[in-house]
Amino acid sequence: MSDTVTQANLDSRFTSEVQSRIDALAASAEAGGFDDAIALFVSAIERGGVIQAFGTGHSEAFAMEIAGRAGGLIPTKKIALRDVVLRGSLDISALGGSSLERNPDIADELYAIAEAGPDDVFVIASNSGVNGSIVGLALAAKQHGHPVVAVTSLDHTMRVDPKHSSGKRLRDVADVVIDNLAPFGDATIELPGGIPVGAVSSITAAYIAQLLTIGTARRIAATGTTPPLYISANIPGGDEHNRALELRYNITRNV
User: Fold this and answer.
1) Which candidate, 45, 31, 23, places its Cα nearest to that of 219?
2) Nearest to 106 by CA among 80, 125, 128
3) What is the β-pairing status of strands 195-199 and 187-191?
4) How much is the pLDDT for 1?
5) Could you give the domains of the chain?
6) What whole-number distance in Å separates Cα of residue 131 and Cα of residue 197?
7) Do the Cβ atoms of 174 and 149 come closer than 8 Å?
8) Cβ distance 120 to 143 under 8 Å?
């Protein structure tokens, strides 16, 4: 590596790339850019529904930010690819490599395993927004009458070909689309020789998930209702608080 490219220089450049995107997302949220998604979340919860969150690969981290964490909304569920092995019909060998997330044929089984209620809303994260399981589950949700919120990189998804037989991207199926602001390929800086590094989509997706959670909780609180939020299981009374509300919303936590 060139002596002029120091670790501090790379760190500073990456921090700048991250901060500029966080600032842009915050400005979008303040301007109402997340309001349509928040309205769908609030409506689902008020009608007794839950927020069904799904992501594959690193985008599973987004679903984990939405569902089942301290400070998060209790009427939420995380759908995971491995559900089709742990709770479905596929053998564990299906989990090897990336073929499962590209497979559109598992979408109906994923939807069935989710046991979605009629008032549920789906929020699906995918940086590329083109893989078969992602688009397939979005289509299945829409076919069953659920609204869909997408979190995706608009820069990336419009520069790659759809892989689902419908010819659609996630953004084409969703009712509401939130751009995670990740660049094509996700990496934001380069090492000497043009080697890309510094992926940002997981960071921006986590921030988006928290903005959606905060916005939903604030809007529920504004009606005079206490928002159904998790507290840490690692503080006294946490398990009891969380379990009581999980029972109210018929939430069962999976792996």
Assistant:
1) 45
2) 80
3) antiparallel
4) 41
5) 7-248 (3.40.50.10490)
6) 23
7) yes
8) no
Backbone angles phi, psi at 104, to 5 degrees: -75, -15
Among 217, 236, 219, smallest CA distance to 228 is for 217
Amino acid at 209: A
Structure confidence at residue 96 (pLDDT) = 79
Rounded to whole angstroms, the Cα distance separating 252 from 238 reads 16
Token readout for 199 is 């992926």
Distance of CA 29 to the CA centre of its chain: 16
How are the residues of the chain apportioned to helix, strand and coil, as percentages rounded to the nearest 5?
45, 15, 40
Structure tokens at 115: 């046991």
Whether the CA torsion 112, 117, 118, 122 is positive or negative: it is negative
- Distance CA(74)–CA(68), nearest Å, equals 7
- How far apart CA 49 and CA 39 sit, in angstroms, is 13
Residue type, 104: P
Phi then psi dihedrals of residue 41, to 5 deg: -65, -50
Tell me, what's the pLDDT at 254? 57
Q: What is the mean pLDDT of each run of 10 residues along the chain (255 residues)?
A: 75 97 98 98 97 96 96 96 88 83 92 96 98 97 98 98 96 98 97 94 98 98 95 94 89 68
Structure confidence at residue 95 (pLDDT)? 85
Structure confidence at residue 90 (pLDDT): 82
| pLDDT at residue 94, rounded to an integer | 79
How far apart are the C-alpha atoms of 119 and 148, rounded to whole Å?
12
